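Why should sequence recovery work at all? Because a backbone constrains its sequence more than one might expect. Tight turns favour small or flexible residues, buried strands favour hydrophobic ones, and helices have their own preferences. The token representation captures these environments compactly. In the example below, the structure is given first.
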């Protein structure tokens, strides 16, 4: 493709994506459970959070008791690099040390035993020795952001709209609050800092203007058949 023609094609793709966001913002269904057609979204805007992995193991609308999942899970080996899906600014981070300080307070508060080391190895020990079989009690005690495990939140501006992406249950983080990140930049590694008993996975959330939407509906190729 000639450079000028390619530039015009990219401009058209970005204009289509801007229109996609405007239509979403006007939609009364733009909330948890809302899905949009991602075909107009330019592939060049996004990458998948796990390079080369488009498979979704737990979908957005999967039932969790009386609610829906409202996120996607991608099973992945702990230590796998996790990348920012597009350019943005880091707005929140819960590091392993912050997460483990709260974990040890929970252990002490529930009278479960001695404190564990404030690292990922300590977490695995706490999960298997103290928390297994006590999920509901531990989740209630931990509350709030602790249940997300080690996580990162990034905000991305697209035509005046705020797209927020959240990467949860990580092993480690490599960015700090306020950092500017680029599409495809490694921001941390996957882990198993979820209190639930499940396969190690990335819990991935997307929001537009604060409303959760299905990541599969906005990131081309993610969750496609045959992944």
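From this structural description, the recovered sequence reads:
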């Amino acid at each position: 493709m000639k450079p000028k023609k390619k530039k015009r094609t990219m401009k058209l793709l970005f204009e289509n994506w801007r229109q996609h966001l405007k239509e979403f913002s006007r939609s009364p269904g733009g909330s948890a459970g809302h899905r949009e057609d991602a075909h107009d979204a330019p592939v060049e805007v996004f990458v998948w959070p796990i390079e080369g992995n488009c498979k979704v193991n737990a979908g957005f609308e999967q039932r969790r008791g009386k609610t829906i999942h409202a996120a996607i899970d991608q099973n992945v080996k702990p230590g796998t690099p996790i990348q920012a899906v597009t350019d943005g600014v880091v707005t929140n981070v819960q590091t392993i040390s912050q997460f483990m300080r709260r974990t040890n307070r929970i252990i002490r508060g529930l009278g479960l035993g001695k404190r564990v080391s404030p690292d990922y190895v300590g977490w695995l020990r706490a999960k298997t020795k103290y928390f297994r079989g006590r999920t509901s009690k531990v989740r209630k005690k931990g509350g709030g952001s602790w249940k997300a495990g080690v996580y990162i939140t990034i905000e991305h501006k697209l035509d005046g709209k705020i797209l927020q992406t959240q990467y949860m249950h990580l092993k480690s983080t490599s960015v700090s609050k306020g950092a500017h990140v680029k599409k495809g930049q490694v921001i941390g590694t996957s882990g198993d800092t979820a209190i639930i008993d499940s396969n190690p996975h990335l819990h991935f959330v997307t929001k537009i203007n604060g409303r959760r939407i299905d990541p599969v509906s906005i990131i081309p190729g993610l969750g496609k058949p045959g992944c």
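A few observations help interpret the result. Residues 52 and 196 are 26 Å apart (CA to CA).
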